[in-house]
């Protein structure tokens, strides 16, 4: 191989390497801009309801215990009131308690809010029937999913009348809850207690946790749904009742 050819190959290799480096720099730049833009979008939207983020300590409740004969029960509070009002054989009260958590979970965003929340391409989230951009806070969607799974245990009481709320919807809720749980990854150490009745330790999850004040979030959603901060649908459209809660067999 001649010196001229070797020099030409070296020059070609140098230009190839330089081009690759330039492409890597461009990709890093694009990534940085994308991350920056996404961060700005998220922060901008979250800045709007940031007053909702109020932390409080909450003791979780309702861990089962066992008598010496193996009988399993959930201890009542010292004042004699039950530790949970969301589980058990379905009743009007239990249904009402769940509805109080996630009723009216969908509300409309202004176009500016939608643009800030979802960025480029936000237009695809337009709901022509309702005449606006429908949104729900993730916590409301998650609570709805948990309630949907609860109802699935009692198909005779909660018959499925909605074709889009069948098995696929149930599986979506289970998978979504899995992702939410892993995303949050609560690291609170949970102890266990030895019970003679079962001759083994059993988990006791009644521990303190640092939580967001859900009541403030609930009040915000209520106000966005039908309060002073409600965004009205465009004229000529109808806000469907299906966005509230419609499956109420006990009410």
Structure description:
This protein is α+β, with helices and mostly antiparallel strands. Helices cover 44% and strands 12% of the residues. The chain has helices at 3-47, 92-102, 111-118, 138-152, 167-184, 214-226, and strands at residues 55-59, 65-66, 72-73, 107-109, 126-127, 132-135, 192-195, 200-203, 208-212. Strands 4-6-5 form a three-stranded antiparallel beta sheet. β7 and β8 form a beta hairpin. α1 crosses α3 (111-118). The longest helix is centred in the first third of the chain and has 45 residues, at 3-47. It is elongated and about 65 Å long. The termini are far apart. Mean pLDDT is 82; it is low at 3-11, 13-17, 28-44 and 246-251. Pfam families: UstYa (PF11807). Belongs to the ustYa family. This is Cyclochlorotine biosynthesis protein O. InterPro entries: UstYa-like (IPR021765). Pathway: Mycotoxin biosynthesis.
């Amino acid at each position: 191989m001649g010196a001229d050819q070797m020099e030409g190959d070296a020059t070609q290799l140098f230009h190839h390497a330089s081009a690759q480096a330039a492409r890597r720099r461009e990709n890093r730049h694009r990534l940085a801009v994308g991350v920056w833009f996404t961060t700005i979008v998220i922060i901008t939207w979250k800045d709007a309801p940031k007053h909702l983020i109020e932390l409080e300590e909450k003791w979780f409740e309702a861990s089962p215990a066992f008598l010496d004969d193996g009988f399993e029960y959930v201890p009542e509070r010292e004042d004699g009131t039950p530790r949970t009002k969301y589980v058990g054989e379905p009743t009007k009260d239990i249904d009402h308690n769940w509805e109080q958590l996630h009723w009216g979970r969908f509300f409309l965003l202004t176009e500016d809010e939608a643009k800030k929340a979802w960025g480029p391409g936000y237009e695809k989230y337009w709901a022509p029937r309702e005449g606006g951009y429908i949104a729900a806070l993730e916590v409301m969607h998650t609570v709805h999913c948990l309630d949907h799974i609860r109802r699935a245990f009692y198909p005779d009481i909660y018959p499925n009348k909605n074709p889009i709320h069948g098995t696929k919807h149930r599986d979506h809720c289970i998978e979504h809850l899995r992702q939410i749980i892993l995303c949050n990854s609560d690291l609170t150490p949970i102890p266990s207690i030895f019970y003679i009745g079962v001759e083994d330790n059993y988990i006791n999850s009644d521990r303190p946790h640092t939580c967001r004040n859900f009541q403030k979030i609930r009040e915000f959603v209520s106000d966005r749904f039908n309060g002073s901060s409600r965004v009205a649908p465009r004229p000529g459209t109808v806000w469907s009742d299906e966005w509230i809660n419609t499956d109420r067999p006990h009410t």
